[in-house]
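Below is how a single chain appears once it has passed through the pipeline. First comes the sequence as given, then the structure the pipeline wrote out for it. We keep one example in the README because the format questions we get most often are answered faster by looking than by reading.
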Amino acid sequence: MSFSIQAGCPAVRKCASAADMADAVGEMYSSDAEDAILVWNLVPVRLPYGYDLAALLDDLVPLLEEIQRPEFSETEVFWGSDTFSAEWKIVREGESLRIQARWHSTLGNYESLLTERGDAVVRTRTFVDEWAKVLKRIVSDIEAEAVELEDADIFLRAKALLAAV
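Resulting structure:
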């Protein structure tokens, strides 16, 4: 497989309330918590929950919604964390997605290796299922901590995505 994610089981800190899902994630997971690992054409890329994943959520949930629409053909997403910065052009090819990436920065400085490995091609359902592992971890931790969110939009959309998986 050219794309997979290991969600891990990061330790959770107490968080009573937060502005939104991204802020809750930034508060709940410390910098020394276990990371998620994105595997791109056999290259592992660390995604710290409290930093990178918190920064990606506001783009990730809409992306997962979009690529599942029957009329979806292509989109671009910019992952804007300074330790996971990349531009992905995602194009539907039948039941699969071709992800063309321009890597700007990653933990471990794997940008040139990731570029050498080329595009990732993954079935749409697999792409959603892989990201769903991370979302499930985050949503269940927010619920277990009973975090009150001032803006619950992305959280509720993530829950709806998970219910459909």
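Residues 25 and 138 are 7 Å apart (CA to CA).

See the next section for the split statistics.
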